């Protein structure tokens, strides 16, 4: 499978320790910037009830769903507590020339 | 742990289902019997008044179990059956199918029933309530474009149905006896935002409405108000709250108040019997008893009761909280909105706002927010952590939206 890097945003378009929603070709992603300015990406919808994670709170490396408090480690997509029990798919992210890029074909469970 | 033990869970709603799952996840290898009067496996109720009515959800999406996970769990689901009596001394429950079942431990997650309206003995076939999937299915069929829906009760169920029905093209009238919407749960400021939104969306909201009579033969064709006004009606939805199912516990001699009374560890007054969810009346530090009819409470108490049934002795300390969705807006509340608190308002985006309830020691005790979509969620979650931390906050800076709650929280941890 070949890589499919798409531009998400400028590096400063995401605050430190925060997340934005990124929609691309009928799919929605959540793209994160950690407190130490590393970038990550996961599926955009919570695996519990399909809520947009980008409205949730980022603390350290954890995203908490805005509705039901399901928590995930956004670095590897791991579901950390019920009601979230299915892991999030994650996607490779890189920074080039001040832009955040996401590989839509590189999704891993 | 002995596999000879039988844990019976009476009530197969969200709290009961979560408890059953938690028992298995925590390694309980004994028998789990989950008894419920509905035909379905436990499911979460919040979507019923929202996505479900709009055809955007289904039982699989709401269910706590997939078919596969249910089979794998080995939980016995006794559906369409009610518990009719508890014998705490004999450790048995009696079911309405004639079976008597012995338990080692019993969890009461009996929920409640919709409070009903008195139609003076008459039976109308277009009157709906909304608490179960079956009721949502029945209501959804009636909400076709142009249908005149009359909602009795301006609380969360009524207003969320009003919102879904408007989105579906119905004409909607909401009749609320009180002077503002959802007054029991919401600050005045949020009630006002809710009222403005529903009016802007074309809902005919009548506050202080006194119903004089329901007119029609087999159907309610119009509602006669004390003001003299007649409200034409194709479908009537009654959303006037719920009545916790306490009778069973009361008849068995368990301590009850407005719900089934428990101690901090969710144990009832009878040995080996616990309670959780909507029906559970639990103590807080102030010596008062509280009951919560929320998703969050069902989830948290279901989990905790299960762990305590397995021998843990954890006190329930969850911060209360709830959300409600209307059109493309949402509200969320966390903590306690005490009437004597100092209230600080922070402005949000697109007309959103956050109300912070601060006590005399400058500690956050509660917060309530309003905004588009789930935009209040981040701040509400930070508020929850600030409430838990109970640190003194710089009250004079709180109204400044450029001072982030996260920085205050981080300051609290520094």
Written account of the structure:
The complex is a heterodimer of chains A (109) and B (414). Chain A has strands at 5-10, 18-24, 27-33, 39-43, 57-59, 62-64, 71-73, 78-81, 90-91, 93-96, 99-103. Chain A is an all-beta fold and 109 residues long. Chain A has a single domain (5-99), classed as 3-layer Sandwich (Rieske Iron-sulfur Protein). Chain A is globular, with a radius of gyration of 13 Å. Chain B folds into three domains: 6-113 and 244-309, 3-Layer(bba) Sandwich (FAD/NAD(P)-binding domain); 127-238, FAD/NAD(P)-binding domain (3-Layer(bba) Sandwich), CATH 3.50.50.60; 328-413, Enolase-like, domain 1, CATH 3.30.390.30. Helices cover 25% and strands 28% of the residues of chain B. Chain B has a five-stranded parallel β-sheet, covered by helices on one side. The radius of gyration of chain B is 23 Å and the shape is globular. The chains are: A mainly beta (109), B alpha/beta (414). At the A-B interface, loops of A face helix 1, helix 8 and helix 9 of B.
What attributes does this structure have?
heterodimer, A: 109 residues, mainly beta, Rieske Iron-sulfur Protein, four-stranded antiparallel sheet, B: 414 residues, alpha/beta, FAD/NAD(P)-binding domain, Enolase-like, domain 1, 3 domains, five-stranded parallel sheet, 26 strands, 28% strand, globular
What is the domain total for the residues of chain B? Answer: 3
- Report the end-to-end length of chain A measured between terminal Cα atoms: 16 Å
Query: Residue ranges of chain B: pLDDT <50 for 5 or more in a row?
Result: none
The N- to C-terminal Cα distance of chain B equals 43 Å
Q: Please state the second-level CATH architecture of the largest domain in chain B.
A: 3-Layer(bba) Sandwich
Count, helices of chain B: 11
* Radius of gyration of chain A, taken over Cα atoms and rounded to an integer in Å: 13 Å
Unreliably modeled segments of chain A: none
Sheet with most strands: strand arrangement of chain A: 2-3-4-9
- Enumerate the strands of the largest sheet of chain B in spatial order, edge to edge or round the barrel: 3-2-1-7-19
């Amino acid at each position: 499978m070949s890589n499919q890097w798409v531009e998400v945003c400028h590096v400063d378009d995401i605050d430190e320790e925060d997340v934005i929603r990124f929609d691309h070709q009928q799919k929605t992603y959540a793209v994160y910037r950690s407190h130490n300015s590393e970038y990550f990406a996961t599926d955009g919808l919570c695996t519990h009830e399909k809520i947009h994670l980008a409205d949730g709170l980022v603390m350290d490396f954890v995203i908490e769903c805005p509705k039901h408090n399901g928590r995930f480690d956004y670095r590897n997509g791991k579901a950390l507590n019920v009601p979230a029990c299915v892991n999030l798919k994650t996607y490779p992210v890189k920074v080039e020339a001040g832009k955040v890029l996401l590989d839509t074909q590189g999704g891993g469970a | 742990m002995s596999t000879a033990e039988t844990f019976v869970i009476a009530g197969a709603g969200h709290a009961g289902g979560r408890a059953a799952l938690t028992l298995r996840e925590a390694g309980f290898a004994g028998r789990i019997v989950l008894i419920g009067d509905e035909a379905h496996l436990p499911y979460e109720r919040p979507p019923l008044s929202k996505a479900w009515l709009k055809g955007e959800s289904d039982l699989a999406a709401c269910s706590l179990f997939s078919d596969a996970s249910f089979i794998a769990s080995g939980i016995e689901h006794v559906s369409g059956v009610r518990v009719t009596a508890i014998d705490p001394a004999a450790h048995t429950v009696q079911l309405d199918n004639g079976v008597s079942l012995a338990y080692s431990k019993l969890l009461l997650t009996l929920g409640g029933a919709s409070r009903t309206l008195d139609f003076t003995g008459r039976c109308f076939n277009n009157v709906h309530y909304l608490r179960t999937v079956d009721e949502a299915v029945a209501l959804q069929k009636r909400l076709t474009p142009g249908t005149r829906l009359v909602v009795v009760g301006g609380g969360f169920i009524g207003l969320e149905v009003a919102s879904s029905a408007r989105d579906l093209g119905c004409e909607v009238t909401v009749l609320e006896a009180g002077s503002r919407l959802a007054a029991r749960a919401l600050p005045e400021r949020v009630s006002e935002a809710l009222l403005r939104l529903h009016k802007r969306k074309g809902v005919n909201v009548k506050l202080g409405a006194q119903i004089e009579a329901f007119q029609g033969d087999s159907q309610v064709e119009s509602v006669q108000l004390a003001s003299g006004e007649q409200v034409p009606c194709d479908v009537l939805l009654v959303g006037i709250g719920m009545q916790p199912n306490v009778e069973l516990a009361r008849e068995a001699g368990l301590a009850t108040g407005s719900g089934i009374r428990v101690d901090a560890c969710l144990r009832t007054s009878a040995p080996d019997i616990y309670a959780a969810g909507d029906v559970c009346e639990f103590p807080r530090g102030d010596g008062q008893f509280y009951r919560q009819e929320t998703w969050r409470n069902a989830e948290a108490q279901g989990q905790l009761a299960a762990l305590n049934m397995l021998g843990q002795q954890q006190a329930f300390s969850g911060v209360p909280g709830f959300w409600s969705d209307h059109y493309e807006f949402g509200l969320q509340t966390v903590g306690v909105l005490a009437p004597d608190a100092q209230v600080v308002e922070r402005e949000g985006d697109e007309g959103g706002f956050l109300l912070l309830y601060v006590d005399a020691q400058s500690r956050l005790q509660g917060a309530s927010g309003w905004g588009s979509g789930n935009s209040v969620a981040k701040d509400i979650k930070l508020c929850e952590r600030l409430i838990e931390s109970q640190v003194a906050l710089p009250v004079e800076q709180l109204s400044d939206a450029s001072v982030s709650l996260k920085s205050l929280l981080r300051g609290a941890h520094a």
